[in-house]
Batch of 4 targets.
Target 1
Amino acid sequence: MEQYFFQTQTEEETKKLAEKLALLVKPGDVLTLEGDLGAGKTTFTKGLGTGLGVRRTINSPTYTIVKEYTGEIPLYHMDVYRLEESDEDIGFAEFFQGEGVTVVEWASFINDFLPEERLAIEIRRKDEYTREIVMTPMGEHYEFICKELYR
Ligand code: ADP
Ligand code: MG
């Protein structure tokens, strides 16, 4: 599978990349975010929210699993870290097929529930400020998005 590599040196750059991505996604899109604690998954999601026209402050939904934000396109922000030991379906499909864009932090914990077509994003912490962001499109729609982002 083809991968697309990006590098950022600041939190702002990561947000900007996510903002650009926000201009390319459509309702019903699913983005997964992997990376260690402190890699920048929530930071990326904040940028995405800005790009989608979300006005409320986005912060980690650790205690709720999913938070919904109103925007030009709604944003469904999931952090499924707490589901690591469970195989509980909290109604994921309704979000994935909904009117919003879904972002899933720690998505590998709910692998069985993820749609086949999605954009897999991995954030690798290289040093305190440098991040390598690797995007793996799963499906033609996401392939197109990655190519546009890369230009
Ligand atoms: P996660 O959700 O993956 O646990 P957060 O987004 O909450 O991570 O935290 C990332 C932390 O790394 C923040 O404190 C942010 O300021 C810092 N940071 C430093 N450089 C970058 C960068 N290039 N991109 C994103 N975050 C960065
Ligand atoms: Mg987080």
Note: The two ends are 19 Å apart (CA to CA).
Target 2
Amino acid sequence: FPEVVTFGESMALLIAEGGKGLEYANTLTPSFGGAESNVAIGLARLGHTSGWCGRLGDDPFGHRVIKAIRGEGVDVSRAQLTAEAPTGLMIRENVAGKSSVYYYRKLSAASRMRPEHLDEAYIAGAKILHVTGITPALSDSCAETAAAAMDLAKRHGVKVSFDPNLRLKLWDLEAARKVLLPLAMKADYFLPGLDELKLLYETESLEEILSRLNELPGVSVIKGGKDETYLFEHGKLTPVPYYKVDHVIDTVGAGDGFCAGFLSGLLRGYPLEEAVRLGNLIGSQVIQAVGDWEGLPSAAEIDRLLSGVGHVER
Ligand code: KDG
């Protein structure tokens, strides 16, 4: 069984080219996205075994997405293709440096995920289960599935990592708060962004945020600080600085890259602070490439970066 198991909605992605916006673009480039499969791909590239379980439509988009995830070395043996409903779709445009995502995923195959679709032995065989707050935003049955998966992992001694990934285009803040905060209580590793915490806890104050995080049983890692990620472990705050990059090209997927790096650090047996540092490094690579997962580096690339070997053109 894979070391890390994750599940959620992966979708076909169409990117409007030419900076004209979707309304006027002449070309849409196909790809795919999904926070959980991004993390699974990141882990596979770093040399770990990862499995992505999810539901896709038994349609051309579904086939395309599952082949692409499989092609990245992620185990998709527990993913299901169903004729019951279509594969979700998201479309991205970039106008004047501002990126917007449009979702076409209501009633998608993934939104019909139910707790019975979980493979208990598969989750029990993992070291870490990674869940994001996008899944519970999809439907009530998806919210039940996310909670059930976390409970199941805990029963089997599998560590649970949870990224709230607040998506206000999928649900309103009040609804999100009611579901995400109880899920955070189930996590061994809670991996929110600072902006998300400000919204979820209704405060701008870091001190207040930390006192709320202190009520959680697990370790928290706060992404998206100005110059650093914060590790918050049993009341102790450790800032871990970012790697500086010269050209930020596309920040989408940085959080997933961070999660992949952090989980890789845990699997490698690094101390938490070093796992956060590896998360920062992976995030810094993702933002230098276009796409949600394309910039995720391989273990060899990371070794080269850390040993200071520059780019060799030929
Ligand atoms: O974190 C990047 C993801 O947001 C993206 O790949 C798509 O899962 C996605 C979503 O729901 O927005």
Note: The mean pLDDT is 96.
Target 3
Amino acid sequence: MTQTGGNTVAPRDLGTGLWVGSTDARVVRAAAGGGFDWACVDEQHGGAAGGRENTDLIAAVRAAGVPAFVRVAWNRPELIGRALDSGADGVVVPMVDSVEQARAAAAATRFAPRGTRSFGPIRSVDGVATPVPEQANADVLCLVMVETVRGLDAVDDIAAVDGVDGVFIGPFDLSLALGLDVAGLLADDGEDGPLRRVVRACRARGLVAGAYAGSPERVARLRAAGFTMIAAVDDLAMIARSAGEAAAAAKAR
Ligand code: 3PY
Ligand code: MG
């Protein structure tokens, strides 16, 4: 991602995405094809365990015609490398709360000489294209999650780390860390409120400002606050909600 030495540049807008908790590739293909701009397979709190399973889920997202990200279970190079080897377009890395941790995440997403990702071009049997290192380094997105007090305090420095392409907030963890509920966190519109601080840090460098929403109201609030990559809905919650609505409608007749 182009850096501009501290000038405010247009933030990269990735639109609205689907959060994937399901491990069924057919469900994921159907849900991701519903008009979202991207989908993110959640290895941390969703069902996906990584490895072969993720390859299938990522392929299902790709078959729906949108980019696939993986939220890895933790900031560990082997998890990041495996998600990218499985074909992910980028990773969302949870609980990054220092410059050192952001550097480690960014390094794990890039091959040498920029980073430390290991090159193992043997996945074509799984249908994953062999990466061309320089191109893969340019194309991959490393999105680090700020969802702790330490992370929020360091957000300007985290956003300045070379190879960090965006900051993504987790409102559940962040609100817990700040002693608020999610509604309280999202309602804080102050100049130095958490949302503004994150968006400002991203805008200063043209980075993606991402957030998990999970409901249309939260999407609207986060969009208004300036976020440019918003996880709108969780696939399994969406199915459960639709099932509830269908059952209620059927019973009402
Ligand atoms: C959070 O809100 O803490 C998240 O990580 C979203 O899944
Ligand atoms: Mg979280």
Note: The radius of gyration is 18 Å.
Target 4
Amino acid sequence: LQRYGQVYQTLLNEKWRKDVNKLIDFGCSEFGLFIYIKRLINLNELIFIDIDEDLLLDNLYKLRPLTVEYLKRRDNPLNINVFCGSVSNPDPQLLNTDAVVAIELIEHLYPDVLEAFPYNIFGYIQPKLVIITTPNADFNVVFNNKNMKFRHYDHKFEWSRQQFEDWAYNIVTRFPEYDVSFDGIAYGPSGTEKYGCCSQMALFVKKEENLELSKINLCKCDKNNVCQSNNDC
Ligand code: SAM
């Protein structure tokens, strides 16, 4: 729940929330993020993608509108598509996406898929924002379970904060149009601060968007306060 909450809060950031109209949730699993992100009023296209077709079909009912949503309709209708497929598959339907989210997905990927994943997202889709979360392996000592290799049987790896940052910095070296920053999700009990949070998050922001923001600051308003630079100022 804290992961969903933090992803939602990140999408709500006033720097870009109006620009997030089309969003992809990769590795969406049981659509847990949906009840949070459907509150984004500017969102009008939502794509859920997971490789597990049975899981998608079993949970599809969760995407139906609630009765109250028929009574009080969104000003901006929300179109939802669910695709069964892999994060490594480029598809023209994914183009023109503003934000990509991948919550606790990368640690489930085999090495060849993990390698292809950044090319699909940063090279092909090229969204304005990318939010990726993964378990923080530094935190695993807090679970105090000597028999635990990984937190889940399907995890192919779990990375320390340093390993995750190295991976993300390597991405921005290959795709220099992006900046990356990091955050933790969910602190442990007092005394465990040195291990960081339970999950870790990387936020990639396309530099063009930073430029757009600085353009707004450099707005050219005439003496009647009418903007001459096509900026929403
Ligand atoms: N994002 C979900 C959430 O926040 O509730 C949880 C993700 S779950 C831990 C990992 C998901 O990744 C599983 O549903 C699995 O089927 C999916 N997955 C694994 N490999 C994938 C791939 N190559 N492409 C898309 N989804 C994949």
Note: Residues 213-221 have pLDDT under 50 and may be disordered.
